[in-house]
Amino acid sequence: MIIIVNNWKKKLLNLAKVAVIVLAFAILLPRLAGILGNYMPVFSGWSKDESPSGNPMRVENTEGTEFDRMVDQFVIKLQNFYYEEKE
């Protein structure tokens, strides 16, 4: 059985180009994610290594921002206002 491939040099060259582009992205993507990790929060979780704690029901306490605290205080004051109005 003989398979004749036309333009094999051109096809091999195109395959080599694609392989070089994929290899370049594979090498540059982790480095770029490391650089952008400080500026974009999307990439910050990629490089964090976390060892398992053994507790499947663990809930992490997220750090609240000043805005979250202000919204919480506003909601509590609003609830107190409506509860006092009903009485």
- Structural class category: mainly alpha
Distance between the termini: 94 Å
Radius of gyration: 28 Å
Mean pLDDT: 79
How much beta, percentage-wise? under 5%
The number of distinct β-strands equals: 0
Total helices: the number is: 3
Order of helices and strands: HHH
Task: Note the overall shape.
Answer: elongated
Name the poorly predicted regions: none
Helical content (DSSP H or I, runs of 4+): 55-70%
The largest sheet is: none
Plain-language structure description:
By secondary structure, the protein is mainly alpha-helical. It has a domain at 7-46. It contains three helices and no strands. It has helices at residues 8-36, 41-44, 66-86. It is elongated, with a radius of gyration of 28 Å. The mean pLDDT is 79.
List keywords for this structure.
single chain; 87 residues; 3 helices; 62% helix
